[in-house]
Structure formats: structure tokens, C-alpha cells
Amino acid sequence: MAEHVLSQNLHITARVRSFALFPGQSTALWHYAIDIDGRSLANPLLRVAHGAAVDISFDNRLAEPTTIHWHGWSLDEANDGSGLHPVAVGEQVRYRFRVTNRAGLYWYHAHPHMRTGMQVQHGMAGLLLVDDEEELALRKKLGLAWGERDIPLMLADKQIDPDNAISYKQDADDWIGNRVLVNWTSEPYLDVVAGWYRFRLANVANARMFRPAFIYDGQPLPMQLIGTDGGLLAQPWPVDDFFLGPAQRADILIDFSTLRPGSRVLLRSLEYVAMDHDGDDAVTFQPDPMADHPGAVAMGNRLDMMELRVVAATQPAQQTDIPQQLSTLVPAPVVSSWPVRHFRLRTDPDGRWFINDWNFHSNGHAAVFSVKRGAREVWEIRNEMTSMPHPIHLHGFQFRVVSRSISPPDIRSRMVADAGLGPQDLGVADTVVVWPGEIVRIAIDFAQAFTGTQRYMFHCHNLEHEDKGMMVMFAVTD
Ligand SMILES: [Cu+2]
């Protein structure tokens, strides 16, 4: 995967070019292009140090408005790159800001109103990596070199037609695909040596939730979960698999040291109960709900994503000790005195998605409530039983999950802490999956360095739900 250190005076162009993604005909990919020393990088991973100031000029050479949304980064409204600030065709804008987030894996993607699903499916996404001193200290201790034993895995499924073109239907629901791309590579494989690896997984699919596990000899290899959306956990947690909803990230360590050369490990999304009810019987009983997705594995079914081939090491294996303290992350705050704001995820009889009684489009794209800057609030997100899992994303602020109740058995069984929390809930997040019937509470500190009114989105990151209005805008005010 191409990579670039994010620095001053970076120029990004949104454009369409063809790439050989699959055997045979090439595939038109809408992407973010960066020309460096006469070399053109498509959707490169951008690395940046915590605290760095960045200044990016951005040219839109697509045939429609677009944006760059810096997913997970705490920015002001103008730099957030939501659909509030579309970049018109042929227009150039500048994104100028300081990166204040913790070290971790974030990502950038298009976010224009009603066209996010279309544009992301066609390729408008890339990864962001923030480093800070704590992260660099851990990396040194682990001894796993970035790019060799510490590898980002950008996971997506795409619906590919017989001519190798990416297929998308505007106004469709839950756009799943028949091909998996890992770091834009189809049929991906990776040669690994016996020893520890660090993988940073990002789900950049439009709608598919993954349940990743590394399968050897029919069984999942144990992993240590060490980080989530907003960086390192305080301590590692042993897991065999986990759920990764659209937009979520997970940072894991895995040990291949007992495997012999010639062994094969599969990165597989395990089967799970998709709980996919959209409350609309007409849709539920549609004769062929997969008609738009020929060849796609149904949501919740087993899906192989990547093969890892164990090869002989050229150097003797080095010892990797995993520190019991990964970072100085403090526990989630005690929120008993914080005000609670209530959100209900639901559909109407026409199959339209809502947050409370709000649908972004029928709501006139207006802010539906405001929060005082510096306020601390609990947001309680309740999902209907006859619903589906929704990956809910907050712009502008990272948050902590403080409780999960009425969770389905497959979530309840992962509980490792009070209040129904699993290992992934113990980190810093910008996206949280709320399962049917569940009530999830998140704690948000609305402190920020900006002034005046800053408007942000709170929405489902199933991009088809988002585009169909499962999104609200709120304002942060002085
Ligand atoms: Cu949703």
C-alpha cells in the first residue's frame, strides 16, 4: 500500500483513473491522488505526527461535488469535510488544521450529501495513521517494524460486475459486494514468518459488518486486542474474534511462532447472526433480496478475506514481550451526574431510517439541537428490536462507551467489564455498533479549541442508511 508522510503543502486531487484490480479488464476507481516526485499515489496511507499542522489543497476533478472527511479527527466544521462544505466540480479548497488526536488508525473518505455510498463504493477512501510518543515507545518495545510486522489492513467488499466495473445503485439499501479487497488488492495473500505480528484493521465497506478471526487448522488463533478507533487500550485483551462494523478499526497482536513454514492461515469473517430486520415486510419478503448483489455472500455469512502463508524466516525469531500496560488511557469517566440525551434508531413503515423523529433529508438539513462547548453529556442510543445493527458515528469528538444493556447473546458473552462492556468498548471510539434491542450509552466531552458555532453530523455509518437520512446535524455553540 502506497504511503506518504502528511506534511505542509500537500496537494490532493479527486479523480477517476483505471487500475488493474482484477485479472482481465481494468476497473475505473474514483480516488484521491497525490503526485509525489513524478509518482502518482492513489488513496495512499497518510502518516502524521500528533500535533502536526497540515495544509492541504484539494482539487475536485470528479464529475460531481465531493469532500474529504477526516474520519475520527477532532476538527472544526469547515475542515471536517462533511456534506455541509461540498467541493464543487472543478473547485479547489484548502484544509488547514492541527492533528490533536491520539496515535491510532483513522481514515479519510468522501462525505457529500446523499452520495457518500456511491463515492466510497467507487473508491474514495484511504487510511490515516497518527503517531505519538506513547505509540512510538510501544512500537519500540514490541520490536515490530511498521510495514513489515505491523501492517494496516483496509477491508472492503465491492460489487464487481462481469466487466470488472464497480457496481452501485443509488438509493439501494445495505450495499454489500461479491469481492473482497484488502488494501485495494483482490485475492490478497501475505507471506509471514513464525513470530508476532501487529495488524490494524479498518472496515471501509459501505454496509458489511465483519467478524474477523485468523483461522489456522479450522480454529481461530488467539489474538490480543490492543487498540480501537481512537488508539491504544490501557491493557491488552485476549480475543478469538471481534465485530468490526463499517468505519470501525481494531489494532491486534497475533503470534504465528508455533506455525511451520508451509502453514496457511486465513483471515476470515466468521458467521454471525446478522439480525437483519428492517421492519419492512415488503422488503423482508422480496423474492430475491440479493438481486443487486449477484455472487455476494449474505450479511453474516462466512467470508474469507486474506490468506497468510507462513514462510521460513531468514533471521532467528526475536522475543516479543507484550507489556501489560500499553498506554496511559484512563478508564471511562463516572457519568452519574452528566445529563442524558436520548436517541432512538428506528424505521417507519416505508422502510426509511430515523434517529428519533429526524431524517436528515425530511429535516431540511438543519441542526436539530445544540450543545454548549465544554459540556459533558451522556448520549443514550436505543435500537429497536426489529432493526439491524447500526454502526453509529459521531463527527468532531471521540467518545467512551459507558454501558451496554439488553445486548444480544453474542455481544453479552464478550463482556469483560461492568455495565455489559466488551474489550472493544474499553477504548476511545468514534463509531459504536448498536445491536437490535440494545441500549448503548456513550460519554462525550464537548471541550474543543474552536469558537463560534460548529456544526457536526451524528449518523449511521452504513452508508446507504446515512445517504437515506439516518443522520442528524447538531451544533456546538459558545
Ligand atoms: Cu444504520
Can you give a write-up of this model?
This protein has 478 residues and is mostly beta strands. It folds into three domains: 3-131, Immunoglobulin-like (Sandwich), CATH 2.60.40; 140-310, Cupredoxins -  blue copper proteins (Immunoglobulin-like), CATH 2.60.40.420; 340-477, Immunoglobulin-like. It is built from six helices and 32 strands. It has helices spanning 77-80, 116-121, 133-142, 281-284, 409-412, 463-467; strands spanning 3-5, 10-19, 27-36, 39-42, 45-49, 53-60, 69-71, 92-98, 104-109, 125-131, 150-158, 179-182, 185-186, 189-192, 196-203, 212-216, 219-220, 223-228, 231-239, 249-255, 264-269, 303-310, 340-347, 353-355, 367-372, 376-383, 390-394, 399-405, 431-434, 439-445, 454-460, 471-477. It is globular. Residues 280-287 have low confidence and may be disordered. Bound molecules: copper (II) ion.
Please describe the topology of this protein.
Layout: E1 3-5, E2 10-19, E3 27-36, E4 39-42, E5 45-49, E6 53-60, E7 69-71, H1 77-80, E8 92-98, E9 104-109, H2 116-121, E10 125-131, H3 133-142, E11 150-158, E12 179-182, E13 185-186, E14 189-192, E15 196-203, E16 212-216, E17 219-220, E18 223-228, E19 231-239, E20 249-255, E21 264-269, H4 281-284, E22 303-310, E23 340-347, E24 353-355, E25 367-372, E26 376-383, E27 390-394, E28 399-405, H5 409-412, E29 431-434, E30 439-445, E31 454-460, H6 463-467, E32 471-477
Parallel strand pairs: 1-5, 2-6, 5-10, 11-15, 14-22, 23-26, 25-32
Antiparallel strand pairs: 2-3, 3-4, 6-8, 7-9, 9-10, 11-12, 12-13, 15-20, 16-17, 16-21, 18-19, 18-20, 21-22, 23-24, 26-30, 27-29, 27-31, 28-30, 31-32
Bound molecules: copper (II) ion.
